[in-house]
Fold this sequence. Notes:
Layout: E1 4-11, E2 14-22, E3 26-27, E4 33-34, E5 40-42, E6 48-54, H1 57-71, H2 82-98, H3 101-104, E7 111-119, E8 127-135, E9 139-144, E10 152-157, H4 161-171, H5 180-193, E11 204-209, E12 217-223, E13 226-229, E14 232-233, E15 245-247, E16 252-253
Parallel strand pairs: 12-15
Antiparallel strand pairs: 1-2, 1-10, 2-11, 3-4, 5-6, 6-7, 7-8, 8-9, 11-12, 12-13, 13-14, 15-16
Amino acid sequence: MTLLVCWAGIDTHGTSSVYMSADSRISWKDSAHFDYARKVFAFKKWPDILGYCGDVLFPSIALNQIVDLADAGLLFSEDFSPKQKFQAIVNKLNNLFKKYPALHAGLSENSLSIIHSSRSPSNNKEFFCHTITWNMKKGWHGEERPMPKKSGVLFALGSGADEFLGRFVLYGRSTTKETSRSVFHCFCDTLSNTTDPSVGGAPQLVGIIRKPQSTAITFGVIANGKRTFLGAHIDNLRNFDKLQWRNENFELCDGTTKRKLPTAKAQPDTLRRS
């Protein structure tokens, strides 16, 4: 399974951002696991992000195709609203799912969930977040979640969700309550201290912001002193200045030095256990 969390950042002008984080572990029933699996996706030409939990094979194939189709200009029109883009994604998922072998007997789990978040092309203060879920009993069904009045969690899904939400109660009482960073603080703290053997690996982070004409962002994350990107450890690579970087405190960082940017506000996590 996994831990997948989506949250909104709110300021005095309304919704300023939506972020999505996931762990990087996929696991098998024999306790084997792989800690480098991509679970979140940022469109390069659109203000849209996706993430999944539950079954791994189908969504990892389908979401890669959907992002590439959209970025190639084949899935969305320029004037599509977030709901129209969501429907285009759902239609493509359904089309692919119908062709999945033996009426989905290939699914390794009994369910899968996908989160889609988007920003309106006509109003950069208008954001959208929706899930689409499949299980053996109900088939496909979804839920839209309105933007909150204060920064907070939109969805927490996967086998690690209960543990995250239980821990988030404490963050909701702290000095950083109702901030975007408190959600990421709690996510990273849960990931580092989880008792769920199916949750692990490095944190992954994508987001969309209110800036007009901006597209979705895939962040590099500095976790446990290491550079990571969509779950992969990349300390042996180069050109780190090509990415926007955050650390586990949600602070803006320099990818080369791995330190907080001098101009960035310090955002320590006083509740972090390790």
